[in-house]
Specification:
Blueprint (H helix, E strand, L loop, with lengths): L1 H20 L3 H18 L2 H31 L3 E3 L21 E4 L12 E5 L1 H10 L5 E3 L8 H4 L2 H8 L19 E5 L13 E7 H5 L7 E3 L35 E7 L4 E7 L10 E2 L2 E4 L2 H11 L6 H17 L12 E8 L5 E9 L4 H6 L10 E8 L1 H4 L11 H7 L11 H16 L15 E7 L10 E5 L3 E8 L13 H16 L6 H17 L14 E10 L2 E7 L3 E6 L2 E5 L3 H20 L3 H4 L4 H8 L9 E2 L9 E6 L3 E7 L1 H8 L6 H5 L4 H16 L16 E7 L1
Parallel strand pairs: 4-6, 8-13
Antiparallel strand pairs: 1-7, 2-3, 3-12, 5-6, 8-11, 9-10, 9-14, 12-13, 15-25, 16-17, 17-18, 18-19, 18-22, 19-23, 20-21, 20-24, 24-25
Helix pairs in contact: 2-3, 8-9, 14-15, 19-21
Length: 733
Amino acid sequence: MLVGQLRRHLRATFDYLTFVYGSEWKYVVGLIGVVLGFIVALLPSGWVFVVTGIGAVITIVMFLLDTRELRSRWTGVHLHNNTPELNSFRFDGVQWDDGTDGFVRFPPVRGQAPDSTDEFVWTDPEVNRLLWTRSEITPVWLSQHRFELPRDLADIAPQSLRRTAAPNQAATERTKRPMWFNGRLARLASEPTVDALGTTRLTMQQVTYFDGQASNELWHWSRDEFIADGGTRLPLHHVVDTRRRILSLEQARVANIVGITIMAITADEQVLFVRQSMRNSVQPGWFAASASGSLDWRDVVLQAKAAAPAAPTLAKVLMHGMLRELEEESRVRPEDVLAGSERITGYFRWLNRSAKPEFSGLVRLTVPLAELERRSITSAERPFTDGHAAIGVQHLLTDRPQGWSDDCAGMLAALNRDQPNPTPIGTSTRATWQAAADYLADNPDYLTRSTFTRRFSSFGLATRAGRGDPDTNEDYANAGNRAIVVLDGATGLGGTRVSPETSDARWFAHTIGDQLAARLGGEGTLPDLITLALADTRRAWQQLPGSDDATGLALPTAGLAVARVNEDRLEWATLGDCRVVLDTSAGVVEHVADELRALDAKAIAEMVAIAEDAGCTVAEARERITGTLREHRALQNVEYAILDLSGDGLARMHTGSIPAADVRAVMLASDGFADLWDGLGVASAAEVLQGLDEHRAQEWLDTVFDVRARDADHTSFPRFKLQDDTTVAWARM
């Protein structure tokens, strides 16, 4: 009885331990081996052989079991290449759009290799058109989190990488494994829709090349069974939703490495092509555009550093990568690029690669084809490039594709005119070619312009002195067909006057304003031209009698707003609280430094509080905050940047540029004029800029002065003085 109970108790305990801890049996066996090791040291010599033998048996058994498990793990993953069924999947739209338009079939080109298959992309002509300009103002945000493969893909990543890299799997002509480096690349995590471009930021994050091979490049592979026998595409549920719509880039869970391709047109109007070697991972042996590849993470990081503290733009990031590839593959140096000709021309999702994002670009060169052909391919690029070819740019014009689904037969025939066997063209090349044709059709002057300098179509200015006498106006304005300037002078706190003008602030604003206006049509960056104008102004100041006696806070200062057309871009800069207001295709945008405005708001709040406590008007309380205003003035070029003779504020000047084609109008305003929307609340900046001309500018000046005059005690609109010098300059493209 007792023996039976003990046996049942032991059996129950064994079953429990086996079920709960059975998966840890290797640890138990290892523990037994450790115990046997200690026993050997304690046993008589005659037993050592026996115990050692038992340990050897355990070791052999464990090795065999580990071998079996390893083999099972690798052979248990059955991947099948379903290339014949590659095009059988039917997409039912895209997640970010209710329509089903946008799917384009790229049929094999007539005369192309006989085993060529269809390719499919999704694209939106409106997005492509917006990219021409809005990519220049769409900010890019760098995610701090790297992409991680979904668990089901990560579990088979080593096996899938090994399988897809095998010869004759991804490309039937390939005889060697492609050269793959697990570089750090950029993943696009935001869909560039019509609504997003120019209005919201797009997110990019770091991803590895192998992440792409283990996710996007598995689209025509299935696990365990062929697709025709009921198998499922490997990354299917990470690419499309349950309604078979393509997931937006925010929702997709594959690597989505950003593809970049660019067409370059030489000075003698030849479109450059590259013939890829058989070591390329995508479409080896085929013709490709002037340069193609993936956006490196370093491309994004470098542009982020260059733009800091602002965010880099989509165009800057993409074009940096495209021009890097162009230099590597086609021997085009940065100085060979015609400044201002860089264009982002298109965007598509490559469906046969799990709908990965791809961008296309276009650029003009200042060197002829013969010059490029004399240059040798770098040793690093030689394994991937078998040579170059070129065809006349007229094929983009006279043989223009009839829509994205055109077979591009004319272009391929021209490329293959000297080839013994027909060579295919890749999907990204076709898309880039057709995007370039679309751009040139809408911008016919792109090929004929020797420079990309633009002019303002109209411009003007209006100003009024706060004290009524024009000679006391410390504001300055200048307007021309290439640049407009506004300065708002402020006299120093020394109590004396050095210049022959009614105030040193007027002399400073007008002197540097004239110096700057004379330079803005010349060469050089905007900060450099401002620095040169300030240097001449400083020399003029030093020649004034008594200038040595004025130092520190006794020196005059000024706020600054300037805008100019340089090549085909509109550049702007601000210092102090002067404003730059741009009417762009993405909406009205105002640029102004906030530091000085914040200090003024603090002083006004103190003035209002004093008025309430003392029972006086806000205007009467003004004299009681003189100390605060002097303290704030002492913070110039410390907590806020301003233009003064030292030039210390130039390093913190706010600057920027966007394509001039994306700008309808620009308005510069001193803080007195900006009172319309920032102090008095009469109208928004967009309303003021709408239809602004000489007549309306005078009406706005009258409005500002009338509203202030009716608020003589500063109660309705708290401010430092009854009237302020008020200036505006504007221009239209």
